[in-house]
Amino acid sequence: MKFTISRENLLTPLQQVVGVIERRQTLPILSNVLLKLSDGVLELTGTDLEVQLVTKALVESGEAGSVTVPARKFLDIFRLLPEKSVVNLECRQEKFVIQCGSSRFNLSTLPAENYPEFEAGTPEVEVAVPRDCLKRALEKTIFAMAQQDVRYYLNGLLLDLDAQMLRAVSSDGHRLAYFEQPLENGPEEGRQIIVPRKGILELNRLLDEGENPVTIQIAPNSLRVDLGTVRFAAKLIEGRFPDYQRVMPRDLTRVVLVEKTAFKGALTRVSVLSNEKYRGVSMEVSEEGTMCLKAQNPEHEEAEEWIAVELNGKGVSVGFNASYLLDAVNNVDSESVKLSFTESANSCLIEDCEDRQFKFIVMPMRL
Q1: What is the predicted pLDDT for the residue at 188?
Q2: Where in this chain does the record put each DNA polymerase III beta sliding clamp C-terminal domain (predicted)?
């Protein structure tokens, strides 16, 4: 295997692939990137057996072959080479030689045939989704995913597709983020899949702005997304995601409208003196049209702030985790935030006043 390539042609696809490769691996070869060269196209593959990325780069000249090399060392070398430089790479006697100007590097290699296969399965569903639609769906829900929860099905994001709609849902048991987007030519039979946290984070990182559609293929145990220059694949989480439709509060009798910037600023300031572990802030909305936010900590320090609001219904007195409220407010694009409560105020529905596609539910906490 031998080829010549410009630094810039290889750097971007290499950076994309290295994102899924863990620093510490039980199998040494999983710390490597697989390089395959044929017909003037270099294919780079990285995987941790849960997520796989495949990218391509055009080479200037070369001899076909395949090899695996340490991914992060390879990336560090290429990142530090001079800009717009031309690099010669060659595999010699179990060493991968990188030569650029007066610089020369020898990397150790492992056989390409030992690189593990990623079992993606046979696709059962294929659907084209606008790139910006999928990007927005992930960005509006990604923050509410659980991390290392014993309820393994929460450690990911639910994608719910049917003939007319794409829905993205995430929850950590204390809050739930929901986003829906109309879909053309979706699957006739509805399909729900749970994509693991790492896969969602990587997919969101790879998605750029634009209207070009991406192709989603769903197999029984895996998801594949063709992004054009990058092919993404991830194993799915087996299990049943909670019925999010049942979680949506009904009979909302108290509705509060508050100016977003004022609400966000007050929450941020008051939470400074909240309990560092629980981040609890109490919210009291009076029928006179004022909201009082209060916080205190074990050192008996206190903070409170008042904001003018519009209230429809009776007053509300409830406590929340300030971080959860701020996450929701940061994802509201309109100038006002809508907070809706049931009669018992056992949950709060947070909505964008202008865009009903995004909804956020947060459970109260005792203070």
Answers
A1: 84
A2: 246-366
Residue 38 and residue 62 in contact, taking contact as beta carbons nearer than 8 Å: no
Residues contacting 50, CB < 8 A, separation 6+: 196, 198, 199, 234, 235
Q: Is the pLDDT of residue 103 over 80?
A: yes
Given a contact cutoff of 8 angstroms between Cβ atoms, the answer to whether 341 and 318 are in contact is yes
> Residues 86, 60: contact at Cβ < 8 Å?
yes
Write down the pTM of the prediction. Answer: 0.91
Return the H-helix or E-strand segment holding 329. Answer: helix 322-330
Please tell me the predicted confidence (pLDDT) of residue 25. Answer: 80
Contacts within 8 Å (CB) and 24+ apart, 92-97 = 96/67, 96/69
Q: Using CA atoms, how far apart are residues 199 and 206, in angstroms rounded to an integer?
A: 11
Looking at residue 100, its amino acid is C
Tell me which amino acid residue 348 is. Answer: C
The answer to whether 361 and 350 have CB atoms below 8 angstroms apart is yes
Q: Report the C-alpha gap between 350 and 169 in whole angstroms.
A: 15
CA distance 294 to 282: 5
Confidence label for 367 from pLDDT (cuts 50, 70 and 90): low
* SS3 (DSSP) at 360: strand
- Per-residue burial over 52-74, b if 16 or more Cβ lie within 10 Å, else e, is bbbbebebeebeeebbbbbbebb
Average pLDDT over residues 329-351: 94
> Do 159 and 337 contact (CB within 8 A), yes or no?
no
- Give me the amino acid identity at 182: P
DSSP 71-138: HHHHHHHHHHSPTT-EEEEEEETTEEEEEETTEEEEEE-B-GGGSPP------SEEEEEEHHHHHHHH
Residues contacting residue 151 through CB under 8 Å, at least 6 positions apart: 173
Secondary structure class of 11 (helix, strand, coil): helix
Residue 105: both structure tokens together: 């590097």
**Is it the case that residue 22 has pLDDT exceeding 90?**
no
**Cβ-contact 361, 175 below 8 angstroms:** yes
- What average pLDDT score do residues 238-255 get? 92
